[in-house]
């Protein structure tokens, strides 16, 4: 099957209060916002956009600091706190004249959506989250026992991290290939042209630094990613998809979901890892349609 490259999509930009966001848009129907994680950018949904656009108005932004969205002052870590990203998404909906939307995400955008469905409940029809991250996650993620998987989050705190990873295209490829494949059920999934598109993205000025700043602002040993509002129960209807082979957000951590949601369903994918939208696109597309077309 021919790879649908980034240039094969329709690209837009939106000037918000303090950042200019890039996004891709395709399809007609109820608005569906697809949010990416790290290491990623909007294109990690490239196998989902077309099929979902048959049923939805699909909008896929790059979060601030990623892809072709603006990089705020990279020396100011506070500009990359997830609460700012939440407001970016709310402002993007306002910019597009969208009162309510369906939202789906994973990895960092799992945290964003946990916050968004509380802070902007009136803007959310339903949500879907791949490999959920909720309050309580950070304690397990940063624990000594999980350090073999989470070490990179502390490496990202170092000034030299950006310079080392961005020192050459080969260094960039080696670093990001490790996470893309190690976190997948199929350890050789990302290769060839697809991998090079990820490298192209991260070699753009500021993209490595922007992604690392998300860890500096939200998942250092001293950061506080959650607000009191984030620790309340949400009545938003949420569909969770969990890869049983995800090493960085293990399936046993789904017990953390129960205290925070009163209306949710949980689906486990036996042969799936961290990047279910890429590993199991047909499965993800079906479950999003099943949930969001009700």
From TrEMBL:
Keywords: Hydrolase. SUPFAM superfamilies: alpha/beta-Hydrolases. Pfam families: Abhydrolase_1. GO terms for molecular function: hydrolase activity. It comes from Sorangium cellulosum (Polyangium cellulosum). Residues 31-280 form the AB hydrolase-1 domain. InterPro entries: AB_hydrolase_1, AB_hydrolase_fold, Epox_hydrolase-like. This is AB hydrolase-1 domain-containing protein.
């Amino acid at each position: 099957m021919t790879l649908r490259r980034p240039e094969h999509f329709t690209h837009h930009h939106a000037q918000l209060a303090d950042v200019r966001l890039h996004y891709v848009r395709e399809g007609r129907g109820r608005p569906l916002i697809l949010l990416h994680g790290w290491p990623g950018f909007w294109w990690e949904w490239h196998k989902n956009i077309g099929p979902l656009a048959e049923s939805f108005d699909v909008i896929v932004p790059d979060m601030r600091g990623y892809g072709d969205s603006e990089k705020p002052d990279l020396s100011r870590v506070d500009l990359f706190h997830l609460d700012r990203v939440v407001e970016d998404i709310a402002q993007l909906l306002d910019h597009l004249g969208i009162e309510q939307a369906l939202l789906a995400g994973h990895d960092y955008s799992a945290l964003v959506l946990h916050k968004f469905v509380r802070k902007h409940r009136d803007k959310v029809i339903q949500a879907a989250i791949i490999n959920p991250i909720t309050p309580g996650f950070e304690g397990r993620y940063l624990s000594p026992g999980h350090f073999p998987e989470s070490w990179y989050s502390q490496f990202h705190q170092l000034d030299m991290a950006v310079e080392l990873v961005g020192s050459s295209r080969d260094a960039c490829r080696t670093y990001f290939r490790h996470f893309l494949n190690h976190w997948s059920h199929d350890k050789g999934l990302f290769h060839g042209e697809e991998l090079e598109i990820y490298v192209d993205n991260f070699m753009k000025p500021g993209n490595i630094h922007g992604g690392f700043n998300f860890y500096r602002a939200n998942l250092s040993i001293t950061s506080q990613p959650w607000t009191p509002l984030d620790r309340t129960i949400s009545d938003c209807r949420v569909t969770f998809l969990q890869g049983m082979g995800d090493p960085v957000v293990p399936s046993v951590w789904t017990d953390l979901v129960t205290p925070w949601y009163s209306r949710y369903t949980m689906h486990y994918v036996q042969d799936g890892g961290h990047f279910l939208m890429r590993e199991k696109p047909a499965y993800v597309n079906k479950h999003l349609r099943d949930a969001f077309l009700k």
